[in-house]
Amino acid sequence: MLDINQLRRDLPTVLAALEARKTPQPYLDVARFTALEAERKTLQTGTEELQARRNSLSKQIGQTKGKGGDASALMAEVAGIADAMKQGADRLETLQSDLQTLLLGVPNLPDAGVPRGADESGNQEVRRWGTPASFDFAVKDHVDLGAPLGLDFEAGVKLSGARFSFMRGPVARLHRALAQLMLDTHTQAHGYTECYTPYMVQAKAMVGTGQLPKFAQDLFHVTSGDGDAAGNKWYLIPTSEVTLTNTVADTILQPEQLPIRLTGHTPCFRSEAGSAGRDTRGMIRQHQFDKVEMVQIVAPDQGEPALQEMVGHAEAILQLLELPYRVMLLCTGDMGFGAARTYDLEVWLPAQGTYREISSCSHMGAFQARRMQARVRTAQGKTEFVHTLNGSGLAVGRALVAVLENHQQADGSIRVPAALRPYLGGAEVIRP
């Protein structure tokens, strides 16, 4: 959530930054914000005047009684002021809640160094690693490669409907091995603490990381018993960013506790429609997929260094898997709701002849911390909001796709990258 004081101080600058995300700017109802703010200011001014009048009257009452006079009229006026102040306080509480609700639907502001652009065409390539392989045979996609290895989309549809998959045998083992490699690398080499988290959370956690209220239609939810009763509705996590980041919600951390680095392997559930006619084949866009997430909670002055570090951690996995990739700095029009700066890692897919996203690493600034009320105590004894970061390290299903396609051989077998072999019993090749 944005700092409301920033909007109060310099609304035109905030609106200009939001315009860079999307034009015309649909995120903030400026007229409503202005009206609520005007009423709040008037109410606060009136409350201060009433307070001053009450203090003056209270002094007069004391003086009048001290002289043996009748203070009943003064006391009646004080009682009336108390009633007016109570009404004002109630209205002010409503106004603050309305302002809070309004701001929950407003995205983060892009960092100054983020390139301006309307969509993905405005993203900037930062670097590449590896060279796409040349094949002397007809390249197959992951669907055709995976079928003999146990990748079964028909079973997924039979059980759950479109955009679900079922894995058995060699491909299921490969999928598990990929997640294990990622977790071991992040915990043993990159300094993250492995976590196992719930797959379902209540609404407050989704609000904290920014999925609610704006993206309710992109989420799956379940109920228990009376679904309308308080506490009987849960949301399936779209990523363990939600659970890992919310561990610091409603918390005041000590400086020595930072940075916090957490990682976890979970299924992810997304109801988003995706691009019409795109990614209808295979595993690129599923309603359920696995991901190894990285989350960092850092001091406010460490956000950018932590982001560069996190990108490097995701790159390390791709390099271990011997997968060509490129790093892209996203433009203003292509960033996610809560991000101030985002780098996407795009892996080469031979069957598509292009790079596709496999990791997104974002610096959220204080945006999530303000929603979660996550702070750190400074050396001066004050508190300030921490900065949060999250990134895919990696999307396991897309890593599976990339390994199948990039390491395929003429006979349909898959060469296993050296780093992955210990997780597959030393196997150098996976065969149907």
Task: Write up this protein.
The protein has 432 residues and is of the alpha+beta class. The chain folds into two domains: 4-104, Orthogonal Bundle (Helix Hairpins), CATH 1.10.287.40; 120-430, 2-Layer Sandwich (BirA Bifunctional Protein, domain 2), CATH 3.30.930.10. The protein has helices spanning 4-9, 11-21, 30-66, 72-104, 142-146, 153-160, 169-188, 203-209, 241-245, 303-320, 367-372, 396-406, and strands spanning 124-129, 151-152, 166-167, 193-195, 200-201, 221-223, 233-236, 251-253, 260-269, 288-298, 325-329, 341-349, 354-363, 374-377, 383-385, 387-395, 414-415, 429-430. Strands 1-11-12-13-16-10-9-4 form an eight-stranded mixed β-sheet. It has a three-stranded antiparallel β-sheet with strand order 5-7-6. The chain has a three-stranded mixed β-sheet with strand order 8-14-15. The protein is elongated and about 110 Å long. The relative contact order is 0.14. The mean pLDDT is 94.
Summary?
The chain is an alpha+beta fold. The protein contains twelve helices and 18 strands.
Structural class: alpha+beta
Tertiary shape: elongated
Nearest-integer average pLDDT: 94
**Which CATH architecture of the largest domain would you pick?**
2-Layer Sandwich
The total domain count is 2
Helical fraction: 25-40%
Instruction: Compute the number of strand runs.
Output: 18
Order of helices and strands: HHHHEHEHEHEEHEEHEEEHEEEHEEEHEE
Distance between the termini: 50 Å
The CATH superfamily of the largest domain is Bira Bifunctional Protein, Domain 2
**Uncertain residue ranges:** none
The main sheet comes to: 8 strands, mixed
The percentage of residues in β strands lies in 15-25%
The number of helical segments is 12
Question: According to CATH, what is the topology of the largest domain?
Answer: BirA Bifunctional Protein, domain 2
Indicate the CATH class of the largest domain. Alpha Beta
